[in-house]
# Entry
Amino acid sequence: MEAMRRLYAGYPAPEQGLATLTALIDAPRAWRRWIRPQAAIDGDFTLPGAIPMAIRHGLLAMEMAMNMQVALGERRHLLLHAAAIERGGKALILPGESGSGKSTLAALLGEQGWRLMSDEFVMIDLVTGLALPFPRPISLKNSAIPVMEALIADSSRFGPLLSDTPKGMLRHLRPSARSIAAMDVPAKPALILFPRFGDDAAAAGISQSELFMRMTEGSTNYVALGQPAFETLIEMVRTIPAASFSYPDTATGLAIVEQFCAEAGL
Amino acid sequence: MSAPIYRTDYPADCLTHPLDGLMLVYHRPSGATHFLIDPTSDMLAILAEAPCDADMLARRLCHRIGTELDDEALEVTAQRLEELLDSGLIRAA
Amino acid sequence: MNDARVLTRALADPISAIEIKPADWPALLSIARAERLDGSLGYRLADLPLPDAVRSALDQARRDAEAGRVQALWEVEMVHRAFRASDLPLILLKGSAFAYAGLPAAIGRQIGDLDILLPRDSLQAAEEVLLANGFEWVKNDDYSQGYYRQWMHELPPLIHRDRGSAVDVHHTILPLTARRTPNAAALIDASVALRPGIHILSPADMIVHAATHLLADGDLAGGLRNLWDIDRLLRLFSVDRDFWPALGRRAVLHEMREPVALALRLASNIFATPVEPRIAGHDRMRDSLFTRRLLARDGWGRETRPISRLGFYVRSHWMRMPPMMLARHLWTKARAG
# Structure
């Protein structure tokens, strides 16, 4: 709990102290509170079959429980599984699953002149088409951890180091004060890049129809939102350039991103 | 037993948008989104003009896109009709 | 005592929600979601002056319910197309019936599976039609298939391979092993055709079904939603002066007088539903046990009172299966893991 408080220090309190979603971690069976204690992820919205985690990873479990509430429950905006960063009022969206490297790239760029909007979920307003921020603690994994530790002097922004989680070593990083302060400031999406970490540097343009398909695959609520989501996505693929790229290391990845941004006018 | 007549609620109950030579369709009654490749969207357009059976559909389709009405055309038409029935974009009366 | 009364009060008396303190809203929303009544709550509280965050959450619930309704109606349409070709009647039950008929009970209701009723001797044909139209068995092992076919009141569950939707085909309302079962043939005879080939139960039978389902066929899990259905249906149906006598007659015919009476008393108790006292009868001591079970949620939406819950689970299985069978069934389930 103390670790959570520190990780969320500086976040504004909800209006009137009113929360509208409940995320839960709980012992899956009563005896699991004391014998090799576990934390199962639960809450208002839940998926069956989520595997409980060790209690020492409770902070991670809590983050995952909260993510699950948003991923399953969001119905106002189109939810994309993507990172997003903003510069000059325009947003770069980086869709991708875990392991694509989107979180690390976004975290780095967020410390180098860009404003981090989110590392995990981007919401698209169905009326305006704007990207809405959702800055939560960034999950840094394995090799990304020392990179960010070297870059950020303020150690209070880091959560505890969690070792041997299901995803390896993990450490949470609180977004910059600037990101948190701007959590209600939207930005116009101007470029969509699909990163893939671990291959030689390469890039390819994405056609509009392919972009449409990939965006629906990367959204947890496209189907549930119906017609407005279809219309919003059509408008996005018609007006926003998109490409995919692979990169062998973060320095190369960042360089490719900046090159695309220059061409797209961000 | 006479051959079934196929009807469709396309495009009346749909939102459609061509992209890269595909037709993207949002089908309101089902809430589903479909990507249609040629000649499926032509088939739907033909049925929307006037419902008909598979043979007539194949004939009108070949006429519309300028190909021979041969066995392959009949087979392709039949396969696409199955897919369209499964998706609910057409129904058999 | 912290329980779901905060939800039932808001549903029954929406204006009272204006007085809810900010600190109490999270619990109400969590309980509503746990009971799958968040959509209904969203519609009941739609135009009230509430905190922005709450309005947003309720808006989401309404949208969710609406998306579910579209999908449920589409499922009815697709199954109807499949059945029509084989001249099989489609008799809708529960949420899909409410939605198709545009009943008030459908407002904001989250609909799960498509539940349909068929004469027992049409089951084979229905099974073939569904399997030929993209549906697959969920439980395909011999024991489950055997259990369902021999003892239960429905085919084993079916899921559509593309749509992911589920169909539950019932041939009566309660399992064959239950001590008393409603008269399926009578339900079908009295069903009302909304369109050629698509039927719903008659109003009185709908209440009998809901009451039966609420009390005789389950451990009351999700019971509040069933009870809310009953409240909404009764308020509409009772406008017709012939309704209460018809309900009385049908309850007797289906040998469900007690469950119907209890359902009416619980609805009256929890939702202040106006009910006909001659059918509802006097309050019984057991009623409060049922009431507590229906309202057993804590401020995080979790079920409380585990002892009470286990009692109902054992009771409900006992009502479905003779004790010897129950033991065998639980043993086989345990071994399968």
Q: What stands out?
A: The longest strand of chain A covers residues 78-87. The radius of gyration of chain A is 18 Å.
